[in-house]
Amino acid sequence: MTVTYPRKFRDQFGAREILAIVVRDREIQNITLNRYRYSEQRACKDLTEVIERLDGQQRELIRDLSRHIHDEARHANWLTELLYDLGAELNVPPGLSYIDEFERLVHDTGGKPGKEIDLDFYLIESLAAINVTEKRGCLYFSAHIHALKNAPQTPENLQIRACIERILPEEAGHVRWGNRWLAQMARTSPQNAERVEAAKRRYTTIEQAAFETSMDITLGAELRRAQWLLEISETLPVWERPGYLMEHLPRILPETQMHRLSLVQIAFQRDPVQFMQQFLPAFLGLGRAAKADAPEAPESSYVRKTA
Ligand SMILES: [Fe+2]
Ligand SMILES: [Fe+2]
């Protein structure tokens, strides 16, 4: 079976590079922790939907999913307590969120209530979708722990590290659980084996697109999002491709502009001087020209503002 892993941001920045920058800035680290909290909370809702859609079928899976919700709710709770103690925001994170974009990019898998359901197809699609986001979570949590080991050992950083270290082993368990279920589904028939491979390809592409979209506000982001849509559509049956593109293409331009505007405003309000010296050149794609003047790589400062 194919094994897929999340890729770096635009094949340049890995989780370790990004988190090393994040932990240097208390405000950005809090925003990042709040994004983890938001995703954990959302996972509870999404897993509940799968249980409701199963409607009593696949009892073992329902039991596993119920345990899974219990874990994710605990993670959301730990992160909420942590952010509360740190005096940080517990709001809906600003800008385009990774998990919202991921859900929007998922095509209709027949999971909507009131529709006839192909249970095997629906399960394979759902398990593959859950599995790729869990992998990204593991990658980020382990990179965050690594970065905190190398950061100043302040009481806050120690508290943050302890929290993430409690979550990570359970997330790794979720990835193994998803791999086991997908392998089990693949063994039930040759058709399901093909479906599992196709779903892994599709959701790996969708996940990478959602991840990059949530971080990318530089000029040309619209074009890159359109390219991602084309890539995702190529993982769908030929007859579904035009409808998928027509559904998603019109929202790219206004959404990217809003996302860009909100993050540019945050960066400017926070530090106007740094905004002009580092953020703006990176945003305009003048990174190479600005590199000689800036004490820090412009690509890094861009990631720092958007991570
Ligand atoms: Fe979790
Ligand atoms: Fe998880």
UniProtKB/TrEMBL annotation:
CDD domains: Ferritin_like. InterPro entries: Ferritin-like, Ferritin-like_SF. This is Gll2307 protein. It comes from Gloeobacter violaceus (strain ATCC 29082 / PCC 7421).
